Structures are given as structure tokens and as C-alpha cells.
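Model the whole thing, not chain by chain.
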Amino acid sequence: MKAPSSVGNPTASAPETLLELDGIGISFGGLRAVDDLSFSVRRGEIVGLIGPNGAGKTTVFNMITGVYRPTDGHIRWHGKDITGLAPHRIAAAGVRRTFQTIRLFSDMTVLENVVAGEHLQIRQKWWQGLLNTAAQRREERELIERANAVLRQLDLLDVAHEMATSLPYGAQRRVEMARTLVAKPELVILDEPAAGLNELESAALNDTIRAIRDTGITVILVEHDMSVVMSVTDSIVVINFGKKIAEGKPEDIRTTPLVIEAYLGQDDDEDDPLMTAVHQGQVTP
Amino acid sequence: MDTPVNSQTPASSAAPRISTVARTLRILGPLLWLLGLAIPSLFPPAWITIGGIFAIYSIVALSQDIVLGRAGMYDMGHAVFFGIGAYTSAILSLSFNWPILWTIPVAIALSAALGAILSAPIVKLRGDYLLVVTIGFNAIFVLAMQNNVFGITGGADGLFGVSGPSVFGQTFGSQSELFYLNWVVLAIVLWLMRNLDRSALGRTFRYIKYDELAATTLGVNARGYKVAAFALAAAIAGLAGTLFAMQLSAVSPGSFQFTDSVVLFAIVLVGGQASVPGVLLGTAMMFVVPQIFTDLAQYRYLAFGIAMILVMILRPQGIWPARKGAL
């Protein structure tokens, strides 16, 4: 079993620290969206990042993946500072993500969307593409084969040639996941993968996330669906108003008073961000 | 919408569905090109010229479509790259006595370099801002040529006397000979476009067009690819520029105005973005159809203007939309 993640003391016996957030913060205008946040992720872990709506979870993801540049602090990947690198450089380091609002390439097939995930494995030169050389054609076939293998894994092979954005919501989420997995990343960041899924789909998602981890990929997960978070994560980081308020194993988090107060235990259903999220999650667009 | 629906395809198969239209086009395209070869022997001289002009503008419009239809950048100064190619060939052949064929690689390289240099600082701009900047490029280019800033562009009148290509001392300058040259170059460019659409390069352009943020998180260096799209498009436009200089045996600032860029832009939108048949159709509408109604030729822009309005309202994806699912 994995030890609960604690910042700054990777012991010799513990699994290698893959990602380390060291006091990162970011402000938008006067708003302090994330403040002095530190946590680390070890290889092979599934880490959950939870918090009420607007707590800054997606902002954290955007900073890790280079979409936003933190105004303070450092992000280290394998011990190397990657703070403020461009998104494509972070991707090249082995980090992939999905988006809270699904971002598939419209007007392109499922297969084309997944092949996009192989961008960094592509060896053909631009002129080989223009001249349609034999080597280029061979590589195109290999790209498709690899994409098909992942599509089969995620049960999407049947719809490989459908327009990606014409699929049901749950399938679109799987396409986005296939697009990240085809790159064989070291770390996958999933931003609310259960949003918009029905109960059956979200149960299947649990298995998918575990299967991802079992192939050696580390996972960070933002999720409102507590059944997903509590059942798949090895450790949980709770943030509220951009600050970390708790960190530990799922069973410990459940009983932390601060967390219950901030997040889990509000009486009023209407004001409860969790309930709101659940309601939103059940509304399939 | 217009997605080719093929209900016979069993759901379990992962084979790509190829629409009948696409299959027909694969045969029809080359056939039409071959038929085009007969134009010089079947039609009066005026039509040979029109055919040659059509080929040249098709090449420029296809290159515009790389930036606009594929990479999704609003370039409304594309005539600049066309002009750079034309001026480069004219200047090298007239002032430096280069054989015109030798000027082609230089025209291509110079246009491509300019495409990269001009686009590098601006590709980060959002669509509408990029559009305004490229209009600015076009205005500056025309002004520079008119004012003869380097003393070699011939000012407002331009340069005259560009001759056709000569091979082994034999000069090929007649309209039919130039037509064949233009027609062959068009075939080469069409082949390059086909390959582009089947390659990682062409796909990456489209990934950026549809969702730049998603593309960058997959490792795409969006800025690099956008500059590459401009450079490639400029290179092809530059090649067309050389053909244009030969065809008219003259170049002048009047051929590369902002309005010419607007026409190229409109051809792509009206014909169909990222659609080769669409762009060819758009070019034909703009440069060939008016010739059939020569009495009404002065209404060319009126007719095209009305066509633009109607197509954008009734068929925003263009007359002949791109086939989806190239893989």
C-alpha cells in the first residue's frame, strides 16, 4: 500500500516523487485563486484533488500543465523545475490531461482525435508528408494501429470513424481519455472525468482509472463524485479558497472536521456545493 | 448535416467509410485535369489565357486555404506572398538576366522566408487581430512597390518584359505553352495538397484550428506549426507568382492589392474551407464564370458579392465542404 502523501520528506524506501508542488500560488487581478499550495505525487499513486466549486482545482491543473504560469512557487517534475514551461513542453515531459469541459477536435473522427495524442511520437518530417513517401505511409499505418489498440481497450473501436463530438457524453469522455493514454504518459491528470456520467458509467470509470494506474501511469484526479474519489484514490488533497485544508488517505479525509465543515457536511442541500455538483453532473447536455 | 452517412457499414467494423462522392472524385479529378489539357487545341486564344489564369489563381487560393481553411488563421494579406514571388522572378530575370526557371526556387524560398518572418510575431494574436495585421502587411507591400523603395521594383508602373521559360535556347512564351506549364504546376500543387491532408503536418494544422489549447497539451508547438503553415502557404503562393509574371510578362503593384487578398479569402470561404474541390470551384466562379458572360463582366464583384452573402447565410460551410475523416 502507498503511504499517505506528505510534503517534503520523501524517505528512501518510499516510491519516487514524480511531481512536487512547492508553495505555488496565482492571482488573477486582485483575486488570489491559489495560495501557497504544496503537495507531491509519487509514482504509481492515484491522487484525488477535491474541494468546493471555485476552490481552485482546475487552476491547479492549469498551472501543472503550463496553461497558467504560477505567480509564486515552484513545480518540480522528477526533481527538475518545470514552473512556467509552455504546455507543449510539459506534455513532452510526459504529462497529459483531460478537460472539465470536454475538448475534442470537432469535425474530426474519433480515430483522428486519438491519433492527435501520438503527436510527440511522430517521426515523419514535413517534407515526407508532402511527398507521401513510403516511410511516411508506413508511419501513418503504425499511428492508426496504436490508436486502434487504445480504442479497443476503451471500447471505442466501433465508433472509430464517427465524428467525435457526435458521440454520447460518456463516450466523448472516453475518447478524451484514449487521446491522453495513447501517448503512454507518466502522469495523467483527469479533470472531473465523472461529470455528466450516469451511475453505470461512473462505476465503469472507477475500473478504467484503476486500469490506467495498473499500466504504470500515475493519476491525479479532480472529482465531485465522492463514490469515485473515495473508492479509487490512494490519497486526497482537499483545497478550499485556493489553500490546502487537508491531505491524507480517503478514510482519514472523510473524518477530518475541517473538511466536513468546508465541504462535506453542510446541511442545506441547496447551498451544498457537492450536491450542486451532483445535480449538475446528472444533467447530461 | 452533410456528413456522409453510410448505413450499410456494420457497426462492428472499424474500416473507414468512404463516401461515393469521394470515390467518384478520386477518378473524376484526374479526368478533369486530363480534359483540361485539351483546352489549347479546342478553344480560342482568349480561353487559353483564361485557363492559364484559372490555374495560377487556383494555386494561390489553395495556398490561402492552407493558412485559412486548415490552420484556421485569418490571413487577409495573402496577395503579398503571391506578389513577392512575382516580383522576385521579374527582378531576377529582368535586372540580373537570370533564366526565369532558375528564379523559381529563389521566388519560393524568399516567399517562404517572408511568410515565416512576418507571421512569427503575429501568430499568437487572436483571429480578428491577426486579420487586421495582415491587411497592414498588404498595404505596406503595395506602398513599398509603388514607391520603388529598393529602386528595383519599377514603381507604380511595375516591370515589363518578363519572358517565358527557355529550355535549350528555345523560349516557350506563347499562351498555349504557358497554359501547359501552369496546368502541370497546378497538378503538382494538387498532389501536394492531397498529401498534406493525409499527413501528420496537415492534421496538426487542423488540430490547432479546432482547439489550440487541447493541441498544445498533446505536445503540439502551436506557434511553430502556425509559422510553418504561413511559410508553406507563402512558398506555394510565391511559386504561383512566378507563373503570374510569365503569364502577364509584367508585374505591377495593382495585381497584389488588398482587394486581391479579399478575393482569395472569399474564394476559400465560399468554396469550402480545407476543401480542394471547393476552392477550385470558388476560383472558377471568380475567374472563369465572368468570362462566359463577358458583357456582364463588370458585374463580376457584384455577382460574387451576392454569392458570398447567399452562401454564408444558406451554406456557411461553403459550396463544397471538406470531406471529413481523412484518416
